[in-house]
Each structure stands twice: as structure tokens, then as C-alpha cells.
Amino acid sequence: FRLAYVAPESRVVGAGDLVDEPKKIAVHYLRGYFLLDFFVVLPLPQVIILAIIPRSFGLSTTADDAKNYLRVIILLQYVPRIIRFVPLLGGRQSATGFIFESAWANFVINLLMFVLAGHVVGSCWYLFGLQRVNQCLQNACSVSNISSCKVFRDCGLNFDIGGQNEQISQQWVNEPASTACFDTGNDTNFQYGIYQQAVLLATKHSAVTRYVYSLFW
Fold first, then answer.
1. What is the mean pLDDT of the chain?
2. Per the count of CB atoms within 10 A, which of 75, 140, 154, 217 is most buried?
3. Where are the transmembrane segments (predicted)?
């Protein structure tokens, strides 16, 4: 609401007049990108992870559905967020007006943009990598003789493992088709491509390790 802009009607006759009146700036912003900016700052991933998914697990939502929700939210929120940041990478002045006075401010916004882009790309890479692992386990489940392997593959089904079911679960763990999904060699039947490291990362118990490596990637 304080970002000055160049009046579009003044660009026809010259370089353009910079509008710095707070009221005009606010009206211009409300008519422009306000709704988009409001949408991209909503904590939708956090709401889905902390509220919606736990309540619906075991009812109508599976772990596969949860990952699909997260992928959709990332694409709907973070891609527009990066698009809104792109004009800030140009330096002191964007297509709409004056932004920063100092080189340090430009350095900080470029650094934040780099970290945000790494966060988005790393998140998508890790989610799509998990999707490939899940696809391999689905294929392994379809060719195995274990009828209840789906409940061992999808934690969202809220299945209680005990007694005889624990023995069946151990059979699924030792099933050659399922263990082959975590073999990332070149001679495996299921090729992961750029998600090869994500497969190995999926076996790590540390959330910090998974996040930092995805951000690094």
C-alpha cells in the first residue's frame, strides 16, 4: 500500500509521472494485485496439514489424497508467489514503479527470492519423488499375492496392525517386489530419473535432513 507507481496515462507523452500519494497508491493496489497477494499469503498448506488432513484421515482421505492436496496447494500458491516476486529482481525500478533505494535492499530481495525458489522447487521435487515411490509400491502391490498390501502402503487408511495382520505386514516388508522399489540401481525395473535421490531420502527419519537436502537440490 506504500509502493509508488507510474501512472499509465502519463507514459504516452513521456517517461511517466511517479504517483506517491498514499490514497491513490492504495486505490491502485486494491484494483490491481491485492486479491492475488492476499491469496498467496494465506497459510493454506499449514491449514491442510494441521487441520483438514488429520480430521479426514481414516474417513474418506488416504495418504495419496493428502499428497495430492499438497501438490495442488503448492502449485496454486507458490507459483503465483514467485511470479509476483519476479519484477523485484530487476533492480531499483520495476514495470510499475520505484521499489528500492539501496543496493543492500536489492541484495536482500534477490537472496529471499533465491531461497523461496529453492523451497518451491525442492518441495515439488520431493513430493513428486514420493509419488514415484508410491507408484512403484502400487505396482508391487498389484503383482504380489498379499491381498491386504494396500493398507500397509497407505497410512491414511488407519489400519490397526496386530496379531495375524502383523505377520502379513512383515510379509509385505520382505516382499521382493516392494523392497525393489528402494533399489535405485541402473538395472532395476522401475526407473526414477531425477527423483533417484528422493527415493533414498524417503528412508531418512529426520525431517530436517529431508528438508535441507530438498532445499539444497
1. 77
2. 140
3. 33-57, 103-128
